[in-house]
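User: Modeling request: complex.
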Amino acid sequence: MKLPLLTGLCAGLLVACSGHRANVADNVRIRWDADPETLDPLRQPTKASSEAENLLHLSLLQVDYAKSSYSPGLADSLPRIRLVGDSLTLLTYRLRKAATWDNGQPVLATDVAFTLKLMQAPGLPNESIRTQYNFIRELRADPNDARRFTLVCQGQASDFAHTSGDFFILPEAALDARGTLRRYRLADLIGRSASAAPDTVLAALARRYAAAAPGRRPERLPGCGPYRLVSWEKDHHLRFQRKPQWWADSLKPLPAVLQARPSQIDFLIIPNEASAVLALRRGDVDLYPDVPAREFNRLRQSDKARQTLAFYTTLSHNVVTAGFNTRRPALADRRTRQALALLFDVPSLLAATQQGLGQRTVGIISPNTRCNYADSLPPLAFAPGRAVALLQQAGWRQKAATPTARWTRQGPSGTVQQLALQVRYRAEETAFETIGLQFRAAAAQLGIAVELRPTEASSLKATLQQGDFDLYIKAVQGNPYIFNFTSILHSQGVGEANLTGFGTPASDRLVEAVALAYSPTVRSRLLRKLQVLMREEMPMVPLFFENNRIVANRRLRNLCPSSMRPGYAAAAITWGPQATLQ
Amino acid sequence: MASLVFLLSRWAPLSDENLGLANATELGNGALANAQARDLARQAARQRLGVAEPLFYFSRRAPMPGGDPVPWQWNGRRNQYHRWLGALLRGDWGTSFRDGQPVRVRLGAALACTLPLTGAAAALALGLALALALALARRPWWRRPALVLLAGLQALPLFVLATGLLLALANPDALDWLPTYAQAAEGEGFFALVPYLVLPLACLVLSALPELALQLTAALAQELGAGYATTARAKGLATKQVLQRHALRNALVPLLPLVADLLPALVAGAVVVEIVFSLPGMGHLLADAATTRDYPVLVGGVLLVGAARLFSLVLADAGARWLDARVA
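Assistant: Request completed. Predicted assembly structure:
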């Protein structure tokens, strides 16, 4: 009697469990691997927080994933640029007439001015954004048009046209209804010393901001974006719902960057990759970005998976590079660096780490941006024989005649230099480890000792900044529209973001010229020159660009697969008819 | 212990990423902020996170040209440890570096997910172990294969077990019976989540069961060989009655330390199971806090697990006294 009852209960439970949670209406469910941590508009510490905040808030300019460029968002057009002398840039914007906050009040230049001041006010979690936007020194409002204003930027750089419009505009009325911040000049807030006397107005603002806690309760600082957060369970899921009345609905034609089609977007946090793939296969998830290359190929080769899933790849702007510590005497000369660069077997590494998904590169510019890519340079070859010749030209000699004998040379002050390398990369990053192992094996054939030092992610950057490495392996993120490399390639960045320590007067001049070039033709010429110079000096070895890999339900339309993060436009997605499943 | 964890965790300075500053080493991050602006930003972030002050009551002086006769300096009460201890005594566990939420709130939310799951798993594992051990002690024909199976299960790493269950029972290419991700729809209550908890629960029960069952089976076998059990059998009691009325109580005493170990594990959660089954529990929270150097959450978690450990030891002692009067 007991056995049939137990069997019946188990069968009932299985029937109840096995029902797939089919999607309803035009909702979209997207997999994330980690919680966004905060939705504070002044901070975007993770990729997920940046994606989520783009649903809640709008910037003057928004990323157009279809075109891989910036398009007007809250602004009605791209800014009008005027250079003043050789040290100021004036950027004139006008806000869209239709743009309003949720309470129907218009978005005005005063809100932009308030946001800029909030980004520089003390006591707020704005430390990161503060340094990014401190080139905007003043907002000059147009006395005749409350929506028109000019941003006065210190310095001149071609990327100002984009970066000056890439921050979320926040409502002054929500945090500073009495306009207490209006009495402060933006430049004064930027230049305010940490030891300045406490200011009651600024302290009160910081208290109000902390009490509002917009990082956890974004509804207290509502943006003028198309969605609102309706639920957030930490480390589990976030749900965004489309506002029933959103100001951009009245725009005709509706710009691509202001499309908001799904009525609900769920982000499901599934840290484990195997679980995420199963959730996608079962229909619990509709879109899975950043699929590991191995899983991507496995799914693509499965007949059953292909019936319900669609596969998208685009070349990202993430370039995997190896960087030399040029401050080390053994690596200070370019011949040695050129020789060592010949020990990377890039085609094999692409196959081993990316399953062939990705693209070799000659420089740090993506091969996708054809006008800027130095296609005259040949891809770097795997040539240990040539490496030996270059090492000998650099003055290195092997201690014995055997191929695996150690290499030494006389230093400038009579010291003996040893060619032995310590390679650092983020621990648990298998792709970097594979690259390190391949390099070590090739180096061992020549008698060069290589020690792999995987380093914890949270301390890697500090270790590299301190120069405690000979070679690093890391993926560097880029984008298709900002070509200002002063932070990573200029000698002024040594000890900070310029990890290789490289910088010559010629390279500095070229990096500065690239940053200043407004004309696409001039910029293209300079960028090609920069890539040639980098190949010649070889402070870093760009190995390959990674692919964005997305797997989605076959019925999803308008994903706008893009080379830019996150690789798709969540708000533009629609569902195709059921029949397309056949 | 918590003081030690606090001091050790804050010994190393926080990196720019830990301070929430942008990663300037990316391409196209634009112009380099000047050194003064960068230092100001770091200083402001340290002040906001409460790590700008000296760590302890005394610290080593920065090396001075010409040397210093006294290399140590007294910092007084204006130090991180003093503030942390004072706040802790007032019931303030601090706020997370990463999201600014109070640590108590974060731990509370994670416990609300972990405790029902691990509690149910522990209760089930205990009940099953008891039933299994009582059955095995009667030496049925399936005793040997069952013991081999239990030993095999005990040797299996939890990650392999969890992934194996997932791939076997929630896989469209195998048996597509169970869901992989727990999400209740709008208006659905806790019971809607029950089907989603079957796999993690099964995983936890299967990982805890072997040790409990094997230990109890061995203890019961030993007790059955004791003089009092022989006497009971000689008086005509069936083996089942000897086991349940006499041997079980004594066999439970060596099991108590194992059960006591379960309580801190209940609080700490099962990291692997929570990651594999996407559950926002304590294990997941503490693992994340460790990798992202979210020290306030990490120290709060250590305090909580430590308290649970102490409580479990007290409970184990009380249980041992209740089961065996000879235990002082």
